[in-house]
Amino acid sequence: EGWCDRQGTLEEVKAKLHMRQEGAIKRERALAYSFSQQ
What we know:
Layout: H1 2-7, H2 10-37
């Protein structure tokens, strides 16, 4: 029970992972774009 309080619900953890993945993808795209513009 304490684990849930510290970590948040499974849905929250999934949402955080998803946001992290989205952010990584956006960073990679931004890098690729900046390289292609040089």
